[in-house]
Amino acid sequence: MSLVFPLRSRPFIAWCSVLELLSHVCSLREGHPGLSLRIGVRPPALSPAPESLMQALEDLDYLAALDNDGNLSEFGIIMSEFPLDPQLSKSILASCEFDCVDEMLTIAAMVTAPSCFSHLPRGAEEAALTCWKTFLHPEGDHFTLINVYKAYQDAALSSASEHCVEKWCHERFLNCAALRMAGGLVDIVRRIELPYAEPAFGSQENTLNIKKALLSGFFMQIARDVDGSGNYLMLTHKQVAQLHPLSSYSLGRKTPPEWVLFHKFSICENNYIRITSETSPELFVQLAPQYYFSNLPPSESKDILQQALDRLAPAPATKGEQTPCEKCPETTEQRCALQ
Predict the structure, then answer these.
(1) 166 in the same domain as 209
(2) Nearest CA-CA partner of 277 in 205, 181, 207, 172
């Protein structure tokens, strides 16, 4: 007698962000000073490498989440209240300063939930791409995700039943479950009291403010097109990747932007950076911590950033004049603390 077992899908390992994991461990230590982090060794494939943990600690320091003793700073404690990646938490807190909290919460929910775009159905690729192009935003994928979520919200408010919402998503080849999850994440994060401003999505000032908020958290995920053909060199790790084929820039723009901020980097047959939006050297040097910039490995991209920094540097004060820091030390200290 033989037993026939049902076919199972290929096993896989669910990866999680070491940075997010370490942030949660540090937050637990706030209430339990004796708690220590012990790296397990069984099985070794599931244990983070010591180098990864050290890199995560360094990244948390860049995000101003740690104090001089390696514990969570006051800013880090606030960041740990969000059920999100530390970089997203930093961007949300920065959005309070830039009056774009509502937009940043939407972006955070959409990038945390599964992709809102369904897998391209065989035989209906052109129809799906045509539908998705209606949501494209010229400034990049983060803004496209806001367009998708706002359209979903409008459909949900005007629909008589949940079935109608699912039909609306199906007709546009959108993942209704992912959008529903994103809506739940927005509701959860909204429970944390934040200074909301009247949404102004679409205005030039609002677009710039969203980019500033994103850069405040994701300054470590910047890439530059080094040859004008879409080969992006990442500043930190010097990996080369291309824009994902379903990126807003791949679908609706002939010339890729020179500088982009990206949310994910995937290693496969073709290395891809996913969820990208255009940025600039001037914005980067304004919002990235100076000591992070100083620690970047030498490269042509760093030289370009240094030139932008030199252009933005204030002229030397003449004799008898006070520097901005001497005039208002409190303001300067607050700005640096946020960065």
Answers:
(1) yes
(2) 207
pLDDT in tens, 30-67: 554 554 544 444 445 555 677 777 888 889 999 999 99
Please report, for the domain that includes residue 306, its CATH number: 2.40.50
Mention every residue, 6+ apart, whose C-beta is less than 8 A from residue 190. Answer: 105
Q: Look at residue 337 and tell me if it is in a domain.
A: no
pLDDT tens profile 1-19: 444 434 344 443 344 455 5
Secondary structure (DSSP) of 158-205: H-SSHHHHHHHHHHTTB-HHHHHHHHHHHHHHHTS--------TTSHH
Strand duo 240-243 + 272-278: pairing = parallel
Q: Where are the beta strands (DSSP E) in the chain?
A: 222-225, 232-234, 240-243, 259-266, 272-278
DSSP output for 242-275: EE-TTSHHHHH-SSPPSEEEEEEEE-SSS-EEEE
Identify the domain boundary among 169, 184, 215. Answer: 215
Number of domains in the chain: 3
Domain of residue 74: give its range: 18-36+45-81
Strand, helix or coil for residue 87:
helix
The CB-based long-range contact list for 116-123 (8 Å cut-off, 24+ gap) reads 116/145, 116/148, 116/149, 116/152, 116/174, 116/175, 116/178, 116/179, 116/182, 117/173, 117/174, 117/175, 117/246, 118/173, 118/174, 118/175, 120/173, 121/173
Q: What is the pTM of this model?
A: 0.81
